[in-house]
Records
---
Amino acid sequence: MKEYLHSVFIEAKNKIPELKEIQITFDVPKSIEHGDLSSNAAMLLTKVLKKNPRVIAQQIIDALDVQDSIIEKIEIAGPGFINFFFTKEYVTKIIKEILAQKENFGKSNIYNGKKANVEFVSANPTGPLTVGHGRNAVVGDTVANLLEWIGYEVDREYYFNNAGRQMRVLGDSVKLRYLETLGDQIDFPEDYYQGDYIKDIAMQLFIKHGDKLRNEDPESIFKDTAEQEIFFDIKKSLKILGINHKIFFNENTLYEDGKIKKLLRTFKEKNLSYEKDGAVWLKLSELGLTEDKVIVKNTGEPTYRLPDIAYHAVKLDRGYDLLVDLFGSDHNATYPDVMAGINAIGYDSSKIKVLIHQFVTIMDGTEVVKMSTRKANYITLDELNEEVGRDVVRYFFNMRNVNSHMIFDLSVAKKQSDENPVFYLQYAHARISSILRRVKEEKLEVSINNLQLLTHEDEQALLKVLHNFKEEVFNSAENLETHKLCTYLYDLAGAYHKFNRTCRILGSEKNLAEARLALAFATMIVIKNGLSILGVSAPEQM
């Protein structure tokens, strides 16, 4: 419906050029008496055209070439709102489209031939994934799904570093726990890795090698084994959520391939870096930012900015049309440095979209939850999965804007009631599936022959929500907003549940029953398609 109005307004811009200067939007009026969709375009043009907005509204209406089979009437309301009333024939046609396309309904080929890279999770192999990593993982994978639905070929990428101080500390931590298993008295440093997973790795080494490793370097078998075991667990945790990365990129390769040295030379040749206090600084103040930043410490160790700039250059060199980065809130103030560096060496940072996700707090009603200390002083993603299941984890992490701090309420997540949005949606799908099984006994079939009978207010309301699915998917993908799709699906389930209460299928006249059955089946398809994008199952029985 919105798609159709956008198309006629595009044509109207040839007659009223001023329409090109405003952003035209369509909203659902609060009252059905005011139509199906409404636009405030006339009021936005008041200052430009210097006319009464109702006069402008009429001018816009006169410029619109609408089809009588689609638009029943157009009215001017209030100070200048343009209200559109769609024909019931047009509204019901969406059922035919959905039933014809089934699992492909909502997909588009707008970006066919374009390649995208979504980099997410990217936790270094020093410990199990936390709930914070979980939010990053779920949103990243869903963004990748959304981009695929609008035509992109998408690579999912995991970026990690298995070198540096943190990995040395990891090796040291495992060796010290290994020495403890040998009976040594160890004063374990507070800033070392504390989780029991370190003890488990140490015990594995003891079982396999006994005391033969007492004199081994911590950065040899201890670090290597820890990295392998932890990465194995990370991949297993992601697989439980249905997440599989195509590319695993090691930061170390940037040094091995000479990318870091080359980048430093480029900055120096372009007079964009300088030495001060034994460190190398990047002239970010000349690149549009407020102050210069260190890219190589006086110890000779690069800051994260240098490898991150090199890494994004590598990704752009692969020919992607779009790069999406999922970062935690600790990157909020610093990723602009990387974007400035990318631009400075001749790349287009506009191809890079950055999503910053905020913290997650696990609650059980009013209580902050600490599920266990098994893995360390945090809740692991595996623990959360075990507690509420994959579907709930994926939906809940998607349903809030990543820019906002998230409260994950276990008391809601575990409920088998309408209070739990996952149950609410899955029950709608299962309910329709149950009806489809039952109608066979009544010798009823899904039929599109009498869709004109769908005139009830709640039937029409449900149909209009179905019309919005394609646009919701596209906008969610374009804006990288997974929560918008969650909101849409919740509204769709609400419209269906209302329809189900007021418009009986079983017990209605045959033609009407079969038309309503077609509407229910179309709704089931859209719910399933939406849930599949979110990575949530659509059960047929509950």
---
Amino acid sequence: MRATNLYAPTLREVPAEAEIESHKLMLRAGMIRKVASGMYTYLPMSWRTMRKIMNIIREEMDAAGGQELLMPIVQPAEWWQASGRWDVYGAELWRVKDRHDRDFCLGPTHEEAITMTFKQDVRSYKQLPLSLYQIQTKFRDERRPRFGLMRGREFMMKDMYSFDRDEAGLDKTYQRMHEAYTNVFKRCGLKFRPVEADSGAIGGSGSHEFMAIADTGESAIVYCDTCDYAASVEIASVPAGACEKEAFGETQKVATPNCASVEDVANFLGLPTSTVVKTMYYQADDKTVLVLLRGDRHVSEVKLQNLLGCLELSMASDETVEKFGGKAGYLGPVGIKGIEIIADCEVPLMYNYVTGANEEGYHLLNVNYQRGDFVIDKVADIREVTAGEKCPHCGGVLQGARGIEIGQIFKLHDKYSRLLEANYTDEEGVERPAVMGCYGIGVGRTMAAVIEQSNDEYGIIWPMAVAPYQVVVIPVNDKDEALTAAAKKIYDELLRAKVEVVIDDRKERPGVKFNDADLIGYPLRIVVGSKSLAKGVVEVKIRATGETMEIPVEEITEWTKKRIGEELTK
């Protein structure tokens, strides 16, 4: 490809809309352009990378026994109503009507569609196991699209669905897909961790997210360096540690003016936040619950929502709180009636703690559940785990990190097959619902995650496997005919050798060409200059390391092929 023909409109300035490095660099390197909030055009350079990622995915999915198909983007509402997700998915589900006023949705995912496909044609156990996948555009009407391709309203996704006879078959398929996902992300050059995760609106039980480690990731995870345990902080669980037994202190009401937060109260009383029990009111669908948690902990709303089995979960209004006798900023469980009280596992083990007095400007000292100061209706693990706590598997110390979710695998069991009546007949002639799994990869997210992990102050640093082009050839003086002819010869030889190469034949200063090469992130840069050419060599720069070397002109094609081969087989 000649640079004079290449559509890669680079920018010198960072667009104001871009918040994270991958978004900035994709805009500056001429890879994407915004169409609307959360929607982008993939320009040629990014689309080449997207296709490479998709080809890696296809190779690994095919090797794992998958068969590719393509399902419609538009899906009938009846399918989603039958599965119960027409309402569960909420406002993110992009609903549309046709000219006959029939309801449809733009698919955010395809569990219903694939289950109906299975239902049409699969009848016997002899047709199982079966794994089908597609790479398709998805739509989710995100409340707050942000970070470029990280959280969009229109995006490219690979989703595979497996159908097995029983749970044992699902376990085997799930493990096979876990290995396939590991291969995909290794080949893309990513640093990642598979972590235990919540299934969310997809449903089922048993799930792992594949997290690309990055400071800009939206998800917090904990992991153990001693064993292979890793989980999102939302679902990670550690046993509640026993507290040292204390004699019950006398309950006292004390004035705490202008102390409406745990930190304010603790500072005012000269106590650590761990000696405070914070009280929160949550609205779970049409039910209000009171939640108790140690003052230095955070509620996992995922755990709480799963515990309550509700569709919507939010903090209750001040008006609702006061209806039950609470006072915003000074909440406590003592004396509260007529509401379910849920306590985290640590709370019943604590002694002599501080709570709100349900009166503005006052708190209670030396409150004790074990003495009967208040009641608890349900005890459950509802908190987020933090770095520094003990690993639940081996007792090691948990480390913390942030990650970008690039893929997730789920055990759906019979959730969709049962509701949509997707059955097979076993050897005894008995109809049984197929046992399903679901496996998704965000293609655009994967590309953005690669950039987020591989960049420097000058631009993108592409791993060879997913670089839009592998090599750029730069003649430094477009007015020197001998030099440009030599550059053209090298370019032609690389093309014949099936190397993905660009020749920068623009009438620009060398500095402009070098800057663009670094910004776009070509893994190898071959510079043809007068002085080096006089010595019979060209200068090669390796983008990932910054290393430069001189390679004889007659050896450059073979050297380049060898270098690319080594990078691709790492």
